[in-house]
């Protein structure tokens, strides 16, 4: 028997969940069956060829028990915040802090008050058919957040969702459902914090209705031993905009699968990603943008910064259906290798079945520009600060797309301290 | 201020500078001319601290210190400035932010407190005015998408802000239109002082009508083959470089 086929130490708890709602019960049991059929992916699966799941399968994770953690660092003064620690709600959004038409509530209460939404959307956007980790998440208690924006509702304050996992050898399964109805708009910041040797397996489903606009910032911040394997699935209707900034700052394994369906004409998706990896860590973003109808636009900008012996993978598939004429799809992926032992894989994949389309993609892997480095140093800036500045400049495009000022400047500071002079590597 | 003694420099085993002797006193302006590929930028780069070049023998004293022992950033902090022949574009790093970081690094080295944002902006406005730098260029990334002339002007602007003791201008005049040449030269002249020295590398004696040098040197095939006053530049303009021999043996015989 090879090591790959050996029984994983991580045996997820798949006991039947006691849901209050029959909808959740059905979803859960289908997902449980599906995960049992699929099991964990192996490197023989094309989608997982470049990911080593060892950080997930080689530890006996068990469901995270109730715990406390200081979440001050992630608080956003300008936002309303809902907080979960170890899959338990610890802080919810006061109803009177929300304008009419905006709902932010835990999923389990939503199953009681808005069964219509749960029934229509939950599990309908993230597919369990070919995504074992979605099946695994769906088979659990479905703890998490519902955001609902009624038709025309707009909310100027960001909605901050914080999922913290703390402890050692513990796993959580956060779940988010965002439904933005016609003409609504909002900004959501979703942060996954891992403190200790944690595993987070989140699933986020997003429906962006006609003419709606949703801005979504998704952050993964883990301890060095932490891992996060999650997904984002979004369906974007006509004249709607979905904008994602996906940032991951290390951890043993941080993988995000992003699937966006452009389902109505003139839908627009802007997807940015930034992955920072060091040590022996792996970072991965696997993106599928599906242009199903004519006249849609999509932009992907993914960046990774690699130190030490780390590995980063970007796979970006653009599918353009046969009648999706006048599609404009762009993709760029760039990796910055700050060490000779780091490895970056960037794989653009185009599947184009229409003829009148514009698809561009570009991918580069390179080091810091020596000429630029010398220019900075020759003006008196020391080497480490210069490297930090150039690295920050490399990441600037992605950080610049983050709409919430507090988040953006915190990440810039964090990057500068991680990559600049304070770092001793 | 600066003294080069028998400086030999190679890259990839190829000797480019073959024994340079040069002494520059405080307050002096020295022009270096010479054919393409003779080693002028190499000399400038070695002085600024570019590490690809190997100093095979000789020494360089800067303000009495052994310059070659210092890394590029320390040289800059000690007051050495190179205006690049080809200024580098640095997307994502703002021109003003960059300059403030550089200035404060230099100030820290001199034991001065950092300039706050307001004082710095005041200084930047004043200096940008000296070289008539379009204020829009301050808000852009360093040199990104700047025209050839704008890049050169930006270099002199950086020099004006950083106030070096020794400035090396590598072909700052090439690519400048006639008005820009005059403005940049005036900028340089306004910085001339008894404590500040300049090395001006150029192909055109025209520049030396504006920036009057104390001496002119001809670099050919890695050696200084002729030195003189500003009239040497006029002679070069008229006669070219062919009459100057780079082989020291032949020269001795002449
Ligand atoms: N990094 C390098 N690698 C290899 N050769 C180099 C390198 N830098 C300079 N050289 C060579 O050294 C010689 C001198 O080059 P340098 O740039 O110093 O000339 P220059 O006098 O500044 O010329 P120009 O007037 O054209 O600017 C040239 O033959 C050049 O090809
Ligand atoms: Mg040159």
> From the structure provided, what is the oligomeric state, counting identical versus distinct chains?
heterodimer
In sequence order, what are the helices and strands of chain B, one letter per element? Answer: EEEHEEHEEHHHEHEHEHEEHH
Structural class of chain B: alpha/beta
Instruction: Give the helix tally of chain A.
Output: 8
What's the total helix number of chain B? Answer: 10
Any overview of this molecule?
Chain A has 425 residues and is an alpha/beta fold. Chain A has 2 domains: 22-264, no CATH class; 368-425, no CATH class. Chain A is built from 8 helices and 22 strands. In chain A, α1 (22-38) runs antiparallel to α5 and α6 packs across α7 (383-400). The longest helix of chain A has 18 residues, at 383-400. The mean pLDDT of chain A is 93. Chain B is α/β, with parallel strands linked by helices. Helix content of chain B is 39%, strand content 28%. A 6-stranded mixed β-sheet of chain B has the order 6-9-10-3-11-12, sandwiched between helices. Chain B has a 4-stranded antiparallel β-sheet with strand order 2-1-4-5, covered by helices on one side. A two-stranded antiparallel sheet of chain B has the order 7-8. In chain B, β4 and β5 (65-66) form a beta hairpin. The mean pLDDT of chain B is 91. The interface between A and B is medium-sized, with 22 and 31 residues. Bound molecules: adenosine-5'-triphosphate and magnesium ion (MG). Adenosine-5'-triphosphate is lined by residues 11-12, 16, 34, 36-42, 52, 85 of chain B. The site of adenosine-5'-triphosphate has 13 residues of chain B, from α1.
Gist?
Chain A has 425 residues and is of the alpha/beta class.
Fill in the keyword field for this structure.
heterodimer, A: alpha/beta, 2 domains, 12-stranded mixed beta sheet, 10-stranded mixed beta sheet, 8 helices, 22 strands, B: alpha/beta, 28% strand, globular, binds adenosine-5'-triphosphate, binds magnesium ion
């Amino acid at each position: 028997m090879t090591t790959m086929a050996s029984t994983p130490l991580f045996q997820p708890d798949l006991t039947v969940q006691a849901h209050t709602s029959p909808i959740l019960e059905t979803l859960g049991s289908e997902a449980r069956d599906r995960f049992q059929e699929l099991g964990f992916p192996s490197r023989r699966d094309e989608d997982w060829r470049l990911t080593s799941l060892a950080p997930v399968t080689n530890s006996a994770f068990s469901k995270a028990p109730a715990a406390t953690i200081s979440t001050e660092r992630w608080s956003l003064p300008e936002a309303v915040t809902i907080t979960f620690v170890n899959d338990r709600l610890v802080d919810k959004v006061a109803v009177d802090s929300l304008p009419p038409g905006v709902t932010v509530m835990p999923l389990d209460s939503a199953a009681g008050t808005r069964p219509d939404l749960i029934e229509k959307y939950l599990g309908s956007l993230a597919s369990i058919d070919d995504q074992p980790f979605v099946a695994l998440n769906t088979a659990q208690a479905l703890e998490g957040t519902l955001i609902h924006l009624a038709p025309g509702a707009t909310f100027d304050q960001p909605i901050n969702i914080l999922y913290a996992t703390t402890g050692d050898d513990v796993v959580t399964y956060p779940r988010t459902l965002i439904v933005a109805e016609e003409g609504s708009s909002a900004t959501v910041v979703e942060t996954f914090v891992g403190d200790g040797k944690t595993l987070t397996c989140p699933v986020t489903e997003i429906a962006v209705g006609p003419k709606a606009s949703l801005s979504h910032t998704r952050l993964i911040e883990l301890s060095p031993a932490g891992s996060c394997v999650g997904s984002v699935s979004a369906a974007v209707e006509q004249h709607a905009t979905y904008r994602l900034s996906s940032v991951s700052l290390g951890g043993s394994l941080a993988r995000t699968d992003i699937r966006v369906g452009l389902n109505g004409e003139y839908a627009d998706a802007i997807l940015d990603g930034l992955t920072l990896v060091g040590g022996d860590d792996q970072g991965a973003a696997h993106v599928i943008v599906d242009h199903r109808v004519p006249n849609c636009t999509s932009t992907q900008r993914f960046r990774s910064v690699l130190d030490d012996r780390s590995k980063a993978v970007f796979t970006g598939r653009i599918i353009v259906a046969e009648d999706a004429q006048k599609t404009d799809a762009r993709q760029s992926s760039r990796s910055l290798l700050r060490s000779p032992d780091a490895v970056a894989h960037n794989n653009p994949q185009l599947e184009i079945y229409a003829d009148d389309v514009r698809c561009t993609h570009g991918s580069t892997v390179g080091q810091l520009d020596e000429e630029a480095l010398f220019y900075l140093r020759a003006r008196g800036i020391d080497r480490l600060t210069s490297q930090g500045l150039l690295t920050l400049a490399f990441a600037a495009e992605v950080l610049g797309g983050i709409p919430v000022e507090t988040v953006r400047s915190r990440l810039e500071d964090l990057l500068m301290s991680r990559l600049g002079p304070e770092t001793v590597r | 201020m600066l003294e080069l003694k028998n400086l030999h420099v190679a890259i990839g085993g190829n000797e480019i500078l073959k024994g340079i002797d040069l002494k520059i006193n405080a307050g002096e302006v020295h022009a270096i001319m010479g054919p393409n590929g003779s080693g002028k930028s190499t000399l400038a780069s070695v002085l600024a601290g570019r590490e690809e070049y190997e100093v095979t023998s000789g020494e360089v004293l800067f303000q009495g210190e052994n310059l070659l022992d210092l890394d590029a950033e320390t040289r800059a902090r000690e007051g050495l400035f190179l205006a690049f022949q080809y200024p580098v574009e640095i997307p994502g790093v703002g021109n003003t932010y960059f300059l403030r970081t550089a200035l404060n690094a230099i100030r820290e080295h001199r034991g001065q407190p950092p300039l706050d944002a307001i004082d710095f902006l005041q200084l930047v406005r004043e200096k940008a005015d000296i070289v008539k730098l379009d204020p829009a260029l301050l808000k852009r990334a360093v040199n990104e998408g700047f025209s050839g002339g704008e890049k050169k002007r930006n270099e002199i602007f950086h020099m004006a802000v950083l106030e070096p003791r020794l400035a090396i201008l590598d072909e700052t005049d090439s690519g400048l239109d006639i008005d820009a040449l005059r403005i940049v030269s005036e900028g340089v002249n306004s910085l001339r002082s008894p404590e500040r020295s300049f090395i001006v590398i150029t192909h055109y004696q025209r520049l030396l009508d504006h920036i009057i040098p104390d001496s002119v040197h001809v670099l050919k095939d890695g050696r200084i083959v002729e030195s003189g006053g500003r009239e040497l530049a006029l002679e070069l303009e008229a006669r070219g470089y062919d009459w100057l021999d780079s082989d020291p043996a032949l020269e001795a015989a002449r």
